[in-house]
Design brief:
single chain; alpha/beta; Purple Acid Phosphatase, chain A, domain 2; 5 helices; Calcineurin-like_PHP
């Protein structure tokens, strides 16, 4: 049905950014020929214009269609303006008509703050997009930087969405099938109600927890099942989750 690559937290401009890791991951993604690549924020370390210029050049190397949303680091130093000029709009949708999938991208960043917020206007827009996708019988994916549900093995929780409860309720009530996020540099999958919440690790930073390696996720969406796979920088892969696909796509 669809094959998706999910990368996050590039942190271009950071002392911990490793170009070779990013190029290796991009080459791997291109070799996999995904139907779409979703990038869930923190393209840059400080939101500087020069960092966005470099990040844009890396993203241009990705051959598949892309949906990109900003992270908290991208909102530093008026980075929201740089993002819109050099990358694309900070939120929007991408429809894979052939595959019966719609991806709804949200901007959860707040200027110069680490914690996130979706806000009422974006929440209403998301709810309307979920409803229209439900009416069309599409597989519904939400993409944003900040996690909605706390991620294990990441220490004290302090950077979750400030309106996480409201957004979580809208996501579940709207029958979203999958939520993609980054931010914590720790890959993990939660399944709540009929929605899976998949967090990606950092694709090219050495700001890692424990023995984790830089990584990205891939998602296989078949008629009968969904499989979320962790792809690590050392070439190893493992299944993060495999579960039944309860969405019946209308062709």
């Amino acid at each position: 049905m669809a094959f998706i690559a999910h990368i996050s937290d590039l942190h271009v401009g950071s002392l911990n950014f490793k170009e070779d890791l990013l190029i290796q991951a991009i080459n791997n993604v291109n070799d996999m020929h995904p139907d779409v690549t979703v990038v869930t924020g923190d393209l840059t370390e400080n939101g500087y214009y020069l960092e966005f210029e470099k990040a844009a050049r890396y993203l241009d190397m990705i051959k598949s269609p892309m949906l990109v949303v900003p992270g908290n680091h991208d909102a530093r130093h008026v980075g929201d303006e740089c993002f819109e000029e050099l990358i694309r709009e900070r939120y929007g949708t991408l429809k894979l008509k052939k595959h019966g999938v719609k991806i709804i991208g949200l901007d959860s960043s707040e200027p110069d703050l680490d914690y996130g917020k979706v806000g009422r206007s974006q929440q209403t827009w998301m709810e309307n997009e979920l409803q229209s996708s439900e009416d069309d019988g599409l597989y519904k994916i939400i993409a944003l930087h900040h996690h909605i549900i706390p991620v294990p093995r990441t220490g004290r929780e302090r950077n979750v969405l400030s309106d996480a409860g409201d957004i979580l309720q809208s996501v579940v009530n709207g029958n979203a099938n999958l939520v993609l996020s980054g931010h914590k540099h720790m890959p993990h999958v939660w399944i709540l109600e009929n929605t899976a919440f998949a967090t990606a690790g950092t694709v090219s930073s050495l700001r890692l927890r424990g023995k984790e390696l830089s990584s990205f996720n891939t998602i296989i969406i078949e008629d009968d099942f969904i499989e979320i796979i962790l792809n690590r920088a050392d070439g190893t892969r493992r299944c993060l989750a495999k579960y039944e696909n309860t969405c019946k796509v209308i062709n």
